[in-house]
Design a protein that fits this description.
Length: about 290
C-alpha cells in the first residue's frame, strides 16, 4: 500500500497537514466573507497550485448555484449547457454530487482540439446535502492528479462543514429575529386586548353605577326642591343647607355622566399616596381641558 510519505518528502507531508489545519482554523474562527474566502484560497494554492478558483453556493430558493467569490477568472466551462442546479460543468457536478476532473489539453499536441486548462470541480456536501461547489483551474494539463485531487477533497470537506454551520447559524438568527418580532407583536396585541377588556369592564360598571346612583339622587334633589318651595316655614340657615345638598347632587350627577363618557383609561398617582394609582376621570372621559 502506497502511503503519502512515500509519494513525497516527510517535510512536505507535515507542511500539507499544517496548511489544512490553518485552513480549518480560518473557516472556524473568522467571519464568513470575501476576505476570509480569499485567505483560504491563498492557503489552498500553497497546498495545491492553481491559476484561478471560484466558490459557488447553492441557493435553495432558486435551486441554482450563485457565484460568491472568484480568485482570478470565474472557473466554469460549457456555460451554454444548463443542468438542474446551474449552468456549465459546475452545475453538472452539483447535480451529480460527484467530483469532476478535466485534464488540460497540451497546446504542443498534434490534436486539432483547442487548448484549455486543467479543471477540477468539487461539490461541497454535508451528509449528502449540497452546500456549494469549488472549482479550480491550472494551465498545466496534469495539474490535478489523484493525490492533489484528494488533498482538494479534504479541504472541500472542511469548507462544506464550515459553510453549513454558517448557513444554519444565519438561518437560526433569521428565525430568532422573526420569533422576537412575533413575540413583540403578540405582547402588544395582548396589551391592547387587556386594555380593551378593562375599558369594557369599566364602561359596564359605570353604566351600573350611573343607574344605581341616579335613582336615589333624583329623590334627594326632588325632596330638596320641595323644601325650597316651602321656604316660608324654613329658616335661611336651612335653605343654605338645602342649596348645598342640591349643589352636591349636581356634582354627583356630573361625575356619573363622565363615567358614561369614558373611552380610554388614563392613570395618575393617588393624591394622598404616591405609590397608589387611580384613573383620571376627566382625561379618561376625553375632557382634555381638565
Amino acid at each position: 500500500m502506497t502511503t503519502v510519505t512515500e509519494k513525497e518528502p516527510i517535510t512536505r507531508f507535515w507542511t500539507n497537514i499544517s496548511l489544512i489545519a490553518d485552513i480549518a482554523r480560518i473557516l472556524r474562527e473568522k467571519p464568513a466573507g470575501r476576505s476570509s474566502v480569499l485567505e483560504v484560497f491563498e492557503l489552498i494554492e500553497r497546498l495545491v497550485p492553481f491559476d484561478a478558483a471560484t466558490l459557488f453556493l447553492y441557493n435553495k430558493k432558486k435551486d441554482a448555484l450563485d457565484e460568491v467569490v472568484s480568485r482570478g477568472r470565474t472557473v466554469n466551462i460549457l456555460n451554454f449547457l444548463h443542468f438542474g442546479m446551474g449552468t456549465g460543468l459546475a452545475g453538472w457536478a452539483a447535480e451529480q454530487k460527484r467530483t469532476l476532473v478535466i485534464p488540460g489539453h497540451d497546446p504542443d499536441s498534434d490534436s486539432v482540439q483547442a487548448h484549455h486548462d486543467s479543471i477540477v470541480i468539487l461539490p461541497l456536501l454535508v451528509a449528502g446535502e449540497l452546500i456549494g461547489v469549488l472549482c479550480y483551474s491550472h494551465r498545466d494539463k496534469d495539474a490535478f492528479d489523484e493525490h492533489r485531487r484528494k488533498l482538494l477533497e479534504i479541504v472541500a470537506d472542511h469548507v462544506a462543514i464550515s459553510l453549513e454551520r454558517i448557513i444554519h447559524q444565519k438561518d437560526l438568527e433569521r428565525k430568532n429575529q422573526a420569533l422576537s418580532r412575533a413575540l413583540e407583536e403578540l405582547q402588544e396585541a395582548q396589551s391592547h386586548a387587556i386594555a380593551r377588556d378593562k375599558l369594557q369592564a369599566v364602561s359596564e360598571l359605570a353604566a351600573s353605577v350611573n343607574h344605581e346612583i341616579n335613582n336615589p339622587l333624583s329623590a334627594i334633589v326632588g325632596n330638596a326642591h320641595m323644601i325650597e318651595m316651602e321656604a316660608a316655614g324654613v329658616t335661611p340657615a336651612v335653605l343654605d343647607r338645602v342649596n348645598a345638598i342640591v349643589e352636591s347632587a349636581r356634582r354627583i350627577s356630573l361625575v356619573t355622566h363622565k363615567l358614561l363618557k369614558i373611552d380610554r383609561l388614563v392613570s395618575q398617582n393617588y393624591p394622598d399616596d404616591a405609590a397608589e394609582t387611580m384613573h383620571d376621570l376627566d382625561k379618561s372621559a376625553g375632557d382634555k381641558e381638565c
